[in-house]
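Hi everyone,

Forwarding the result from last night's run.
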Amino acid sequence: EGRLAEREMELRKREEPLPGRALFVILLLCVSGGRAETAWYSVPEEAARGSLLGNIVKDLGLTAEELSTRQVRLVPEGEKQYFQLDQHTGDLFVREQMDREELCGQSEPCLVRFDVLLEGPLQSFRAEVSLTDINDRAPVFLNKEIILKISETTKPKARFLLESAQDPDVGNNSVHHYNISSNGYFHIYTRQRSDGRRHAELVLDRELDREKQAEVVFSITAVDGGSPPRSGTAVIRVVVLDANDNIPVFTQSLYKVRVLENSSEDTLVAVVSAKDLDSGMNGEIAYSIVQNSEDNRETFKINSETGQIRLKKTLDYEEIKTYEIDVQATDGGGLSANCKVEVGVQDVNDNAPEVTITSPTSSLSEAAPLNTVVALFSVRDRDSGNNGRTSCEMLGEQPFSILSLVGEAYALVTLEALDREKVSRYNVTVRANDAGTPALSTSKTLVVRLSDVNDNAPTFSQAIYNMVLRENKPAGTILGRLNATDADAGENALVSYMLVLTPLGVSAAGSFLSVEAESGIVRALHPVDYEEVHAIEVTVRAADGGSPALSAEALLRVLVRDENDNAPVVLHPPPDGSAAAGELVPRWAQAGYLVAKVVAVDADAGQNAWLSYELAKATEPGLFRVGLHNGEVRTARAVTERDAPRHRLVVLVRDRGQPPRSSTATLTITLVDGFSEAFLQLSQAHAGSPQQEEGDHDLLTTYLIASLCCISSLLLVVIAAFSGTTLCKGRLCPALPNSSARCSADS
């Protein structure tokens, strides 16, 4: 460290200009596990953009692998970024030209600080860049003509303080010495103040004689120490006065005072006093301030008669901490004396902390892990001591925390898991407080918006969708609509629908139904025949537009409703005429004799398949009758000799659909005499009276009604028992001790 400091002093003493890029890098390594914690660099002011400062990866003891795998950011101390980092090589370059006089004024050294932040894991380092001065400003005299009144009785070697030239540069580049042109009476002497500035004193070489030369005029040149040097010139006009043998004498050669920086304008700073032993005009003293700096001229004023020094404007401890004022007392004869007033500015807590967001995050993923950096900010207080000590806090309950980094840098990081579906935006207010009395604070609000990730699957409004399709409806018939919602946003919330096809007999549900992907509308692909398919059951899926996509499933049941689209089909007698020979009936057949039975079926279901029979047409209408429900053809009366031998019957078979459909069956009946007595008796044994047939039908109807009532009653009893058991388990059991066991035993 000692050698590095000596090297820095040696380079600062050089008078030749620095090149456009940094000549040296001074590193102070606070070694912790072999890694630098602070890097120091030096660069000339107004260095060109792209000038190389050094390789920060090597200077901080990092590796090339760390540079490629970890994100590196430069966090400036202020709002402006003057440097940039090559993320591939680790080289540090100048991003913006810097004016040392604008950034630091007369302060030395002039340091520009920034932090180097590495993520994954989070780690920070401090870097400081020293701006070295270049000779870009020439000395300037505030007054182009300096008038001195000197008595002709002034002895040689007398010294006269001159107005100093102003040069914003520092060090060797500031005012180095003064020269005056040849005049025969004076030479110049350059003195250095305690603050490092140089001022000129005019030394009298030989006595003046007003009668020979009333005025002496010559030029003064202020030359700085730069290379090449710069200079500024003014004219000195010396007015030779008549004899005044007493000069004013100040009561003190040095006045020291302290003033609060928040003192208002026209506040009394100090009172200087001088006495002159002369009388009359030569004893009258006028006070003035020798303008040796622009700051003094703008800040202080003096009452020429009383010597009261007052403020012309308020002071700022953060800009200038100490002022040195040269006061001159001049009597009426032109003799003068000088004293120095040293004004120390006392700091008060007049600056609130400044919060600067250096790296805000416009959007944060809701899936961000814990300790993810949301924003980087710095807190700065221009006051000193306790007034400049700051602390930082976050207002309100938020899922974030503030992590202190190196120096005055902070990071806002996530503290817990985020959920955009619950809160999509946070207004995070950060407040910085100082330790002054009274304490000052500054708040800054950062808006954090959460970006969506696909973490919510779609949700159907129903677990089971029941729809009805009438058979024979045309293709494209709308059966209903599926509805699913997704709590996510954007493409993650776009829901598309599809069928999850499974085998259904020998065909698939996909051949009967379709679902519109965007709207969820369910349509029939083609007409469906109830006689082939009674119901369709298929799984439907809703998938969102995320990557990877999430989905949910529901059950779609489509009941096919029967239509009366099938007419009854006669099985007997055969429609092909194979029974053309007809039926044989003996002439002695009695009433109720069973002649034949018409057998028919209907492919429909329910009422559409209930059949009734009636005699539509007969050769002799009163001879035969047809059973309404069973289709049996019997004799309505006894056959006589007068009846025709051949009869033709047309039986109408009709279903109960709306509208009803029907078919006909044709019977040919022949009356014959050749039946045996046994055949006749057998026929009579099987035959019954019409009243008996109607009684049998009524008995069958009664049996059917009784069976239906029994089944309905049994179903009601089962439903009541199941409801009672569920009520006991769901409501009574949780309210009673040991209720689970009791309910289980009851059930």
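The first helix runs from residue 2 to 12.

Cheers,
N.
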